[in-house]
């Protein structure tokens, strides 16, 4: 399985979370702990960690208790031994906060190998978009004008598809935190009209797809296929080794991913390695939350 330096354990991600109200602590072995104070204690989330040992978990717990943790929620990265979490008092959570399944594109493959992995219908759609005159431009650390184009299309898509779109102020804070490690791809009609956008953030050798959208005009074209294909080649040329397409449907969490079939099908056309992350795990410390969970039978 492809190993990654997940963006959510990177310095820029920590800086972004600070900008939107979270505090950050770090273990001696480099894992970042995100926490936010509340009336019942600090809410703690630790996401996409490297495999954790029992000793690692003891250090994490010590730090979190110093922050008066109400609970610790860990969403492990690849290869975590879930038995270690259970032995340390964690229970499975059925409410993931980040996508539990994804697709990794190996950017160390040659362009020919990457193209070979694209499905027949995906290749057709890319060629059709090129024949229709679509073109893709990708901007490192995009300026405000390009970012506004991206947000306008993203917002329109969110309303149509009924998914949550963060306020532009929040996404601009992400953009500020990532700087040159943020890349915005826009596909244009031959007359220069923007048809679709995708935004990527990166940590070390890993690129992460954040979100994107397609305009009303773009939905009648195959421009989205060209946009993603050109993005793959661009990110490869930038020296990244893994492209995380960030999310696909997951039968383990039907409510969380119930509306993801369409874009999952789209992503699958580009090949790549489908990855199921370990279950999220949580450990409760707040007596109030422990009582609530016991009475309702519902965890967090």
TrEMBL record:
<dbReference type="GO" id="GO:0008360">
    <property type="term" value="P:regulation of cell shape"/>
</dbReference>
<keyword id="KW-0573">Peptidoglycan synthesis</keyword>
<dbReference type="Pfam" id="PF13480">
    <property type="entry name" value="Acetyltransf_6"/>
</dbReference>
<dbReference type="GO" id="GO:0016755">
    <property type="term" value="F:aminoacyltransferase activity"/>
</dbReference>
<dbReference type="InterPro" id="IPR038740">
    <property type="entry name" value="BioF2-like_GNAT_dom"/>
</dbReference>
<protein>
    <recommendedName>
        <fullName>BioF2-like acetyltransferase domain-containing protein</fullName>
    </recommendedName>
</protein>
<keyword id="KW-0808">Transferase</keyword>
<feature type="domain" description="BioF2-like acetyltransferase">
    <location>
        <begin position="123"/>
        <end position="249"/>
    </location>
</feature>
<dbReference type="InterPro" id="IPR050644">
    <property type="entry name" value="PG_Glycine_Bridge_Synth"/>
</dbReference>
<comment type="similarity">
    <text>Belongs to the FemABX family.</text>
</comment>
<dbReference type="InterPro" id="IPR003447">
    <property type="entry name" value="FEMABX"/>
</dbReference>
<keyword id="KW-0961">Cell wall biogenesis/degradation</keyword>
<keyword id="KW-0133">Cell shape</keyword>
<dbReference type="InterPro" id="IPR016181">
    <property type="entry name" value="Acyl_CoA_acyltransferase"/>
</dbReference>
<keyword id="KW-0012">Acyltransferase</keyword>
<dbReference type="GO" id="GO:0071555">
    <property type="term" value="P:cell wall organization"/>
</dbReference>
<dbReference type="GO" id="GO:0009252">
    <property type="term" value="P:peptidoglycan biosynthetic process"/>
</dbReference>
């Amino acid at each position: 399985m492809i190993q990654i330096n997940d963006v959510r354990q990177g310095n820029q991600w920590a800086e972004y979370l600070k900008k939107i109200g979270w505090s950050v602590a770090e273990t001696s072995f480099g894992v970042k702990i995100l926490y936010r104070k509340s009336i019942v204690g600090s809410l703690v989330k630790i996401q996409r960690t490297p495999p954790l040992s029992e000793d690692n978990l003891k250090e994490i717990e010590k730090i979190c208790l110093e922050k008066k943790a109400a609970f610790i929620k860990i969403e492990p990265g690849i290869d975590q031994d879930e038995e270690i979490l259970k032995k340390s008092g964690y229970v499975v959570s059925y409410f993931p906060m980040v996508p539990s399944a994804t697709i990794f594109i190996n950017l160390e493959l040659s362009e020919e190998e990457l193209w070979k992995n694209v499905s027949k219908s995906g290749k057709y759609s890319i060629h059709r978009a090129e024949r229709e005159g679509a073109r893709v431009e990708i901007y490192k650390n995009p300026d405000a004008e390009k970012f506004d184009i991206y947000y306008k299309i993203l917002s329109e898509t969110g309303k149509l598809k009924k998914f949550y779109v963060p306020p532009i102020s929040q996404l601009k804070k992400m953009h500020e935190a990532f700087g040159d490690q943020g890349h915005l791809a826009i596909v244009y009609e031959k007359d220069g009209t923007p048809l679709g956008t995708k935004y990527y953030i990166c940590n070390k050798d890993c690129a992460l797809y954040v979100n994107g959208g397609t305009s009303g005009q773009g939905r009648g074209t195959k421009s989205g296929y060209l946009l993603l294909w050109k993005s793959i080649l661009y990110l490869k040329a930038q020296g990244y080794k893994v492209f995380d397409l960030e999310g696909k449907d997951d039968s383990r969490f039907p409510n969380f991913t119930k509306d993801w079939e369409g874009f999952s099908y789209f992503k699958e056309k580009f090949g790549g390695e489908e990855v199921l992350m370990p279950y999220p795990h949580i450990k409760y410390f707040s007596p109030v939350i422990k009582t609530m969970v016991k009475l309702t039978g519902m965890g967090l």
